[in-house]
């Protein structure tokens, strides 16, 4: 059972104290004081969640009490002032000095309930904002590499050490461990942070186009080359070039890349002169490179050129202490992204998360949390919502949900089912989904803009 919030009523009229105590006893723990001096004695002895104080009292008025609360207490409670019509000016002044609201006597119980509810909601919002600011500050300080495990601390320390060097970096780690995040961290931590950060996925570009993507081409270099175009190396001049999945690069291109790394200059296709490029090269791979070399799939000399500064990203199963921090971070991020009210993970579900093996690493954890946030209508994520039992498909990758739906398709399906169940009542559907009507309306508009039938 949830603990009742504790409220301190401060008023010199005992009838008012008795009335408020009786009115709030079913929802709050109520203590009372006849003046500001007695109130401060209570506050020093045991903290309260909210002070409901009269403005004018003998033995210390409400403004003095407010000032004492803010200056003398380490964790000041919320303060709501009560005032008669003739002292509204003082109550308004109190809100300028830090009181959260005020009530004008005489007031009804509905007005009291509304004011207290709004005050506690605002406190919750402030707490969430502080948590979010702390999370964002941690991301900035850690360059997005969240975690307090030994592996993550050591990785951040190495990144700070190498950030200003020109040495080529080879990031090795399983899929989903955050190699691109680490590459951006290296770029952002060093003197090249104001320069471009250019990424090329070596596995996504056909071999016939890869040379032009890397080095660019002159006009007329080949059929269809109607104008000159710089390649990734030129675009990254003064900054960093991330060669993602370098182990997938064809052998023919590996020889050309080796020369560029040695000479620090490139030549566009169809050009007669070379161009100097000041580029920090960062490469990533999820393969065991020495095995690729033995298999004749990767040049040994290129490997040693890339492996000047080797960094290994630990899989999530080797840093399970980081899972609670990462999971809570993803919950906050996806709640904000999807217009959801704040959600939290139960202790049982968190134990389940930390005991999971996570073959898909941080990316898999992120996908699980995103899916749970989107598909959960309440404010708690338990084991049932996280649904780890069906998460793996046997290859170590996150499996699709029933029906092989994507997250976006699953979100749309859930929204449409809610609308059908509520007879098209958007307000009720939004409430059951745990999102605002505005968010629901925006989602429906996006579906229509993409030519998707929504039937409502």
Short overview:
This protein is α/β, with parallel strands linked by helices. The protein is 47% helix and 13% strand. The chain has 19 helices and 16 strands.
What does it look like?
- The structure is a single chain.
- The chain is α/β, with parallel strands linked by helices.
- Helix 13 (323-337) crosses helix 15 (361-375), helix 15 packs parallel to helix 17 and helix 18 (426-433) packs across helix 19 (437-449).
- The protein folds into 3 domains: 6-134, Response regulator (Rossmann fold, 3-Layer(aba) Sandwich); 161-314, P-loop containing nucleotide triphosphate hydrolases (Rossmann fold, 3-Layer(aba) Sandwich); 318-449, Helicase, Ruva Protein, domain 3 (Orthogonal Bundle).
- The strands form 5 sheets. It has a 5-stranded parallel beta sheet, sandwiched between helices. It has a 5-stranded parallel beta sheet with strand order 7-10-13-6-14. The chain has a two-stranded antiparallel ribbon with strand order 8-9.
- It contains 19 helices and 16 strands.
- Mean pLDDT is 85; it is low at 390-404.
- The chain has helices at residues 14-24, 36-45, 62-72, 88-96, 109-141, 150-162, 179-189, 207-215, 232-235, 251-263, 289-294, 300-306, 323-337, 347-355, 361-375, 383-386, 407-421, 426-433, 437-449; strands spanning 6-10, 29-33, 50-54, 78-83, 101-104, 169-172, 197-201, 216-217, 229-230, 240-244, 265-266, 275-276, 280-285, 309-312, 344-345, 380-381.
